[in-house]
Amino acid sequence: MEKQGVKTVGFIGFADAYGQSWYSVFSTAAAAHHLKLVANERYNRTDASVTGQVLKSMAANPDAVLIAGSGTPSALPAKTPKERGYKGKIYQTHGVANNDFLRVCGKDCEGELLPAGPILVADQLPDSNPVKQSSAAYKNAYEKAYGAGSVSTFGGHAWDAGQMLQRAIPEAPKKGQPGTVAFREALREALANIKELPLAHGIMNTSATDHNGLDKRARVIVEIVDGKWKLQDE
Questions:
Q1: 74 CB contacts (<8 Å, ≥6 apart)?
Q2: 71: closest CA among 31, 102, 42, 112?
Q3: Rg from Cα positions in the chain
Q4: Does domain 8-117+219-233 have CATH number 3.40.50.2300?
Q5: Is the Cβ–Cβ distance between 44 and 73 less than 8 Å?
Q6: 119-218 — its CATH code?
Q7: What does the alpha-carbon distance between residue 6 and residue 154 come to, in Å, rounded to a whole number?
Q8: What's the pLDDT at 152?
């Protein structure tokens, strides 16, 4: 947003813990990047209309709107601002990074921006991107089994967990037999000390204090262009 010249943001999120978590984290990040939150609106996942929330947000005249939802329920607050003539930028979260969202939202989501795992645009990553090879490996394996265009970001997380286990499991028998406390402790230790492991979603580096293990290489910015995901920024 800062790169795009955005200074004021309207927030529209789920009226539950998911939406509240997004608001808490984003409000902190916004302050750090000199963005002013001018609206905070919520809606239920099953709502048939968000006109009231959108109009209140638009009344604050934000440069951009962030929709903090997931899946197809995020399409409604994406469509409504454009129906009401909003001309600012609309951002989504990684929770909409699947083809069902594109199908439901259609042309109304054209030009929207969101962060996502690199697997979403694996074919568009430059060869210099350290995640391209491992991301493409998962994409190719998945689509070989389920058909072209079937891959989504979500299955990549399960694949990545499997890759971590493949790295860690060989270390555990060195300290104990499977089923023993020593084996389990060794497996835990190995999982907490993975270094530079290429995954579908990034490069994994874990430690005793960092079990997430991913850095900025685990996200890209994509734009919805002609109903497809287009890489905008690594």
A1: 67, 92, 93, 95, 96, 101, 105
A2: 102
A3: 20
A4: yes
A5: no
A6: 3.40.50.2300
A7: 29
A8: 84
